[in-house]
Amino acid sequence: MDDDVAFPFASTAYWIAAVRARETARPDRLFDDPWATALAGDLGTEVLARAERAAGGENPYLPVRTRFIDDVLVSGASGCLQIVLLGAGFDTRAFRLAVAEGVRWFEIDRAEIFERKETILARAAARPRRLRIIVQADLASDWPARLLAQGFDPAAPTAWVAEGLFVYLADQSVESLLIRTRRISAVGSLLVADLFGSGIMTSPGMSSYVASVTRRGLPPPFWTDRPDGLFRQHGWDRVEIVEPGDVRANFDRLPGPGRRPSNVSATRSWLIVAHADGIAAP
């Protein structure tokens, strides 16, 4: 398997599914995803192994990120009547999270992702806990129109999820995504995401991906050292910033604030919960 297959957009879903499968097998697991192993398959196992060889070991941040977002959706998104997974991949939250009655799940991703995902979930007789609606669309396309056509209600408070997504997008794609989500977000909506600082460009774990996109003439990984400004600039009114390792994003897996290395620029990242407190600008 060459680098173009090992770390790119198509295999990210397999890689993260493999991470979730391994976490589920732990006795002290942070979440339970019984479908992750089948979704990851052999490709996911191989991609995970390559990622960890490049990074020099297991990345404990990934299961912490998943659990943090789970907690936001279950207990921090009260009042949200819709949840939209942007670049859903092999995410199974609609099947495993106990969200409030009446909440609708929307999953947006490319058709080839859903082709495998739906086949495996059907084979496992998996049933979503609430109404789940698939939206086959590339995030580079006019995905809001497709989302609206599938019954999304822009007047209903919505929780948007962009887990592990922004780092793979070009600057203008991130800006477009923030603007588009905000324009159709009612008061009380939120967007939960993760972002990396400039150190991502020299991170060992991203070296294969950076080399691959550079060779192919594609945009480098997205980063920002001012996450609050990024969201506010594109219409989000209030931004909560949580650093992995802080009390809300630790779970005894990451070094706490007092135990971080002095040079944090190479590994700095943020978990973001951005809020829509007012009416969006047209």
Structure summary:
This protein is an alpha/beta fold. It contains ten helices and seven strands. The protein has helices at 3-6, 9-25, 36-55, 61-76, 93-96, 111-123, 143-149, 171-183, 207-215, 227-233; strands spanning 82-86, 104-109, 132-136, 158-162, 190-196, 238-242, 269-275.
Question: How many beta strands in the DSSP annotation?
Answer: 7
Radius of gyration: 18 Å
> Which sheet architecture does the biggest sheet show?
7 strands, mixed
CATH H-level superfamily of the domain at 60-200 and 223-275: Vaccinia Virus protein VP39
Strand numbers in spatial order across the main sheet: 3-2-1-4-5-7-6
Q: Portion of residues in helices?
A: 25-40%
**Quaternary structure of the protein:** single chain
The end-to-end span amounts to 46 Å
Q: What fraction of the residues are assigned to beta strands by DSSP?
A: 5-15%
| Helix-strand topology string | HHHHEHEHEHEHEHHEE
- Shape designation: globular
Q: What is the CATH top level name of the domain at 60-200 and 223-275? A: Alpha Beta
Tally of helical runs: 10
